[in-house]
Write a structure and sequence with these properties.
The complex is a heterodimer of chains A (379) and B (158). Chain A is α+β, with helices and mostly antiparallel strands and 379 residues long. Chain A is 50% helix and 12% strand. In chain A, the strands form three sheets. Chain A has a three-stranded antiparallel β-sheet with strand order 1-2-3. In chain A, strands 6-7-8 form a three-stranded antiparallel β-sheet. In chain A, strands 4-5 form a two-stranded antiparallel sheet. Chain B is built from three helices and seven strands. At the A-B interface, helix 4, helix 7 and helix 8 of A face helix 1 and helix 3 of B.
Chain lengths: 379, 158
């Protein structure tokens, strides 16, 4: 326990300036978006050190995967990064399909991509609302949830659940899309195109918001690469790391979209990257929604899936960054080892680097732009 | 001078933001997604595929379609389903046949993943769309899906 050692009176006298002290932010702090404990060393209000203390919501999902069959693993990944649950499911299914060398129908690929992009928009909507709330604008919270509700209805009608959908299965998707799916998605795209400019007018252009964001929490491109940052956090620093662009999966090789890149590396850049990503996701959905190919919505697999002996890796781009699934199979019906490379863990590791020297209020805003989901960090 | 221009900019962005909120406020009835639950219980209808809980439909003769093959029990990731079964002699043919005694479903353990319903070869279990699952005691969450005295529908084979 390094903390207790430092608090002994002798060391305090020797090593500490009189005004430095510790404060716990979390695990029940609303700004940490879950059960994350941050151990802050602060001098007045200036942050000297941030130590994230993880493990409060560790559920040993990786170990549980070793117990489960390949179909059963999928539903556990819903509970990692619950805001991009469909993309997590997709990652596992793609790994299994690659290992089996199973070619899924085109229809499945397109459905997966559309729902994946809808998930990304839903996640960014929620992030935008919470982001505004973290810097003191409560209205954004309601507006973000209002638009997310439409996506949740689409999910509920087609997949049966709003958040933890478990719609993917190895070999396809669980059911065919609902007859209303296409119309509802089109309605949403039309609706949301009028809403993003509203977001910009309400929050992005606001002078107070700009001052809170600009030049705060600067992350250079070199640091982004060396800390393993991915997703909007990496792209806000000019690090081109979009898995959808560099290693396209599902139907993403058929669509054209721009990778959202900003070079400033501050909180505002990360914010703008996510807003740009919403536009790109809308454009991907628009390109695919009219051309969903006919065909089967799944290919039959064996009731007991056994992967050939070997190691398999697949990465996808979730709303938070690069999710990697690494599976080791010994040829039995359960994996020997499953490892998830989650974007949240890498992104939280650079919090100390970018928050030192700022104020506590800036830490809250910076953490909001990292868009952490704590179950994704702990798994 | 920058002092006054800052004030001007601040007021301008404030008014821009307030024009958005004002518009939403005036059109609040149109774009509202708020539901007056529980007052709208009568009219609130869930989607057909909504995963409320697993049920076993019975027809008017109190017959179900479950053959007791236990595929749902194997497919379930967290042991929400237990099937107690027995081999009984069919009086007509004299053959021994598997028959369920109790199909036990622990709603409190269920994660609504839908793998059991996918695995069922005879469509014996389906999703129900009820959404009010809270009870006062957790023992009420353990349910027996087959009704007392029910038997297997004729002609259902797995």
């Amino acid at each position: 326990m390094p903390l207790r050692k430092k608090m002994e009176p002798k060391t305090v006298n020797n090593n500490f300036k009189s005004e430095e002290y510790f404060i716990n932010m979390g695990p029940q702090h609303p700004a940490t978006h879950g059960v994350l404990r941050l151990l802050l060393t602060i001098d007045g209000e200036i942050i000297k050190k941030v130590e994230p203390d993880l493990g409060y919501i560790h559920r040993s999902i990786e170990k549980m995967c070793e117990r489960d069959s390949y179909q059963q693993i999928v539903h556990l990944t819903d509970r990692m990064d619950y805001l991009s649950s469909h993309i997590n499911n997709e990652a596992v299914c793609l790994t299994v399909e690659n290992a089996l060398q199973l070619e899924v129908p085109e229809r499945v690929k397109v459905i997966r991509t559309i729902i994946g992009e809808l998930t990304r928009i839903a996640s960014h909507c929620l992030w935008w609302g919470v982001m505004g709330m973290d810097v003191g604008a409560l209205t954004t919270y309601f507006y973000g949830f209002r638009d997310r509700e439409m996506i949740n209805d689409i999910f509920e009608e087609t997949c049966g659940a709003r958040l933890t959908m478990n719609y993917n299965i190895p070999g396809g998707v669980m059911y065919d899309i609902h007859p209303n799916f296409i119309q509802r998605t089109k309605d949403f795209v039309k609706h949301f195109k009028t809403k993003i400019p509203e977001y910009d007018r309400l929050l992005t252009g606001n002078v107070i918001f700009q001052k809170r964001m600009k030049g705060v929490g600067i992350l250079s491109k070199e640091d982004a690469i060396s800390f393993g940052a991915s997703g909007p956090v990496g792209r806000g620093s000019g690090y081109s790391c979009d898995v959808r662009k560099h290693h396209p999966y599902s139907a993403l090789d058929k669509v054209t979209f721009n990778e959202s890149l900003k070079t400033a590396g501050d909180s505002l850049a990360r914010y703008e990257v996510r807003i740009m990503e919403m536009w790109e996701s809308l454009s991907i959905i628009e390109q695919l929604i009219d051309n969903i190919p006919e065909g089967d919505y799944k290919v039959a697999t064996n009731a007991v899936i056994k992967l050939p002996k070997g190691e398999y890796y697949q990465k996808v781009e979730t709303a938070r960054g690069e999710l990697g699934v690494y599976m080791v199979s010994t040829g039995t019906k359960n994996p020997y080892r499953v490892k998830f490379r989650s974007p949240g863990l890498s992104n939280i590791s650079l919090l100390n680097h970018i928050a030192v020297g700022g104020k506590i209020g800036d830490l809250v805003a910076t953490m909001a732009t990292l868009d952490i989901v704590v179950p994704d960090i702990d798994r | 001078m920058s002092y006054f221009s800052n004030i001007y900019k601040g007021v301008k962005t404030l008014l821009t933001g307030m024009s958005v909120t004002g518009k939403v406020f005036l059109n609040s009835r149109k774009g509202s997604i708020t539901q007056q639950y529980p007052d709208n219980r009568e009219t609130l209808k869930m989607f057909d595929r909504f995963r409320g809980e697993v049920v076993m439909p019975h027809d008017e003769n109190n017959e179900h379609r479950c053959t007791g093959c236990q595929k749902c029990e194997i497919a379930c990731p967290n042991g929400s389903i237990e099937i107690i079964w027995d081999r009984k002699v069919n009086p007509e043919t004299g053959k021994k046949k598997k028959e369920i005694d109790q199909h036990i479903y622990h709603l409190g353990l269920c994660t609504m993943c839908g793998l059991c319903i996918e695995a069922c070869p005879t469509d014996a279990i389906v999703w129900a769309q009820n959404y009010e699952n809270s009870v006062f005691d957790r023992s009420h969450l353990t349910k027996v899906l087959n009704q007392p005295g029910s038997k297997l529908m004729d002609g259902v084979e797995d």
